Amino acid sequence: MSEEPTLIEIVGALAKRVQELEDRLAIAQLIASYGPAADAGLPHVVIQMFEANSPFDAAPGLRMEGHPDILAHLLAPEHKQLLANGAAHVLSAPFIQLDGDRATATAYSQVLYRDEANDGFRTWRISANRWEWHRTPDGWKVTGRVNRPLDGTPAARELFAEAFQPNAAGRPRPVI
């Protein structure tokens, strides 16, 4: 015969579940804010998501190391022109794995641009994304981001497959 859990045990279990839900929501909200902040031309909002020295491997041949590089990319004439012509950085809902004060989120991203001649939008790029996160006193911060184009090469599929591999502690990542 098993004993009923105590009120302290019940409250502790509920507090743990609420914290996990809050963590997932915070990370999802940050990812959801990336595209609108980039498209609004607000690089200071984008870089606040990242730890100061975090790498952002945006595409083969485009690797940024920390705030100065990310800021330079967002302020570059090419990026400003993309925004001026009409662009959208769109991210899917992330698949989030929590592991204490660390987390990984895997999602799709696509960049659309205005096709004025056809009065519509075209897809410029669709990619697999892996975001690595760390809880700080100021909330969750990106410690690294990898973006791989879905161009038929194995890199994007491998990035997605990593989301289902065991975590650093050897435990299977939860699929929930």
UniProtKB/TrEMBL annotation:
Coiled coil: none annotated. Residues 19-145 form the SnoaL-like domain. SUPFAM superfamilies: NTF2-like. It holds the Pfam family SnoaL_4. InterPro entries: NTF2-like_dom_sf, SnoaL-like. This is SnoaL-like domain-containing protein. It comes from Herbiconiux ginsengi.
